[in-house]
Design a protein that fits this description.
It comes from Rhodococcus jostii. Helices cover about 10% and strands about 40% of the residues. By secondary structure, it is mainly beta. Strands 3-2-6-9-10-5-4 form a seven-stranded antiparallel beta sheet. The chain has a three-stranded antiparallel beta sheet with strand order 1-11-12, with no helix packed on it. A hairpin with a 2-residue loop joins strand 9 and strand 10.
């Protein structure tokens, strides 16, 4: 017997989310403070180098994020490339309404910005540009200072955190 019903078309939005989850990326936690000194932050896997001269990087922040209004006018922020031990912290910073900084190991730098000393890499950024794009804002930061460690970063792939294998080459 022939089935004449149309073949269901997959939900394109879900298909796009699944496809993007199949692209491995590093994971960052981005932090700043507001005018009153309150700490704010979010998790971002959308992070990349924009320019080497001047040194520019970008992260993407959802327009619906609680911290969006603060980052929309922040002059400085810190991008932390996290280590696999920070996977739970990254999930917390991606959760709306969570007490993100409670017992998280952040300390304040000389300007009061929250830094995570155990991150694999920290980039101290000054605001260079902001660009609305779809349902996100692209935050472009000029890198003012860098703190690197030998700790390998976490990799996020298919909605799971993974450890980068040291010494593995293609």
């Amino acid at each position: 017997m022939n089935d004449t019903r149309p073949t269901p078309v997959p939900d394109q939005a879900q298909l796009f989310r699944d496809a993007m989850a199949s692209f491995p990326s590093g994971v960052t936690i981005v932090t700043t403070v507001d005018d009153a000194g309150r700490r704010w932050g979010f998790t971002a896997t959308s992070f990349c180098v924009v320019s080497m001269d001047p040194p520019l990087v970008l992260v993407c922040l959802s327009d619906s994020a609680e911290c969006h209004p603060v980052f929309a006018k922040a002059d400085r922020w810190i991008i932390h490339v996290i280590h696999p031990e920070h996977a739970d912290l990254a999930r917390r910073f991606a959760t709306r309404g969570a007490d993100k900084f409670a017992d998280a190991g952040f300390v304040s730098d000389e300007r009061g910005l929250p830094i995570l000393p155990t991150a694999s890499l920290r980039l101290d950024c000054t605001s260079h540009a902001r660009q609305p794009s779809g349902d996100h804002t692209i935050l472009v930061g000029k890198v003012a200072d860098i703190d690197m460690t030998d700790r390998l970063p976490a990799i996020y792939f298919r909605r799971q955190f993974h450890t980068l294998a040291e010494g593995v080459t293609a």
